[in-house]
Automatic annotation (TrEMBL):
<dbReference type="InterPro" id="IPR036291">
    <property type="entry name" value="NAD(P)-bd_dom_sf"/>
</dbReference>
<protein>
    <submittedName>
        <fullName>(salmon louse) hypothetical protein</fullName>
    </submittedName>
</protein>
<dbReference type="InterPro" id="IPR002347">
    <property type="entry name" value="SDR_fam"/>
</dbReference>
<dbReference type="GO" id="GO:0016491">
    <property type="term" value="F:oxidoreductase activity"/>
</dbReference>
<keyword id="KW-0560">Oxidoreductase</keyword>
<dbReference type="GO" id="GO:0005737">
    <property type="term" value="C:cytoplasm"/>
</dbReference>
<dbReference type="InterPro" id="IPR051468">
    <property type="entry name" value="Fungal_SecMetab_SDRs"/>
</dbReference>
<keyword id="KW-0521">NADP</keyword>
<dbReference type="Pfam" id="PF00106">
    <property type="entry name" value="adh_short"/>
</dbReference>
Length: 167
C-alpha cells in the first residue's frame, strides 16, 4: 500500500511543469514494473539502489545520479525506504534484527543524504524558504513511528521514530 501511495505522489510530481527530472530508485527494477513503466516519460529515470549497501558511501549510485543531472543540482531527496520485519515483542528481539532495522531505517537515509549533499547544495538557497526552487530532504515515515501507535514491534517502532527525527 505504501508503494502505491508513493507511486501516486510520483505521478503528481510529473504533472508539475517545474519538475524537469525525476530519479526514482528501487532495489530491483524487474520487480518494480509500474515504476519502470514511468520511464516512458523522458523526465523519469529509474535507478537500482539497495540502501542497506552503503559501505562505499553510495559512490556508484552518486556517480549515476550526477551523470543524470549533469550540471544541474538536486532539489528534492525523498527518503522512503524502510523495513519492518516481523512483529516481535521485547522478549523476542535479537540484536541482529535490531541492527539490520536501524541500518536500513536510520543509518542508510542519513548516509544517503550526506552523499547527495553536494548535489543539493548546488541549488540550495538558504534564505528562499521551502519550495520547488530550493533544495530539501523529506524523510518519509509512517504513523507507526508515533508513540501513540506503538503496537507493531519494538525494532520497527524505535527505528521509525528515530528516522522521523533525523529530518
Amino acid at each position: 500500500m505504501l508503494l502505491m501511495d508513493l507511486l501516486a505522489s510520483f505521478k503528481e510530481f510529473l504533472k508539475a511543469d517545474k519538475v524537469t527530472k525525476i530519479i526514482a530508485t528501487c532495489r530491483n527494477k524487474e520487480k518494480a514494473e509500474e515504476l519502470v513503466d514511468l520511464e516512458s516519460n523522458s523526465r523519469v529515470k529509474v535507478l537500482e539502489l539497495d540502501v542497506s549497501k552503503y559501505e562505499n558511501d553510495y559512490k556508484d549510485f552518486i556517480a549515476q545520479v550526477s551523470d543524470e543531472l549533469g550540471s544541474d543540482g538536486l532539489n528534492l531527496l525523498i527518503n522512503s525506504a524502510g523495513i519492518m520485519g516481523e512483529t516481535q515483542s521485547l522478549g523476542d528481539l535479537t540484536s541482529e534484527a535490531m541492527i539490520e532495522t536501524y541500518k536500513v531505517n536510520c543509518i542508510a537515509p542519513t548516509i544517503l543524504a550526506r552523499a547527495l549533499l553536494p548535489l543539493l547544495k548546488k541549488v540550495a538557497k538558504p534564505d528562499a524558504g521551502f519550495g520547488c526552487d530550493n533544495a530539501a530532504i523529506i524523510q518519509m515515515s509512517t504513523s507507526v513511528a508515533s508513540i501513540a501507535e506503538n503496537e507493531s514491534g519494538e525494532r520497527w517502532n524505535s527505528s521509525s521514530f528515530i528516522a522521523s527525527w533525523l529530518g
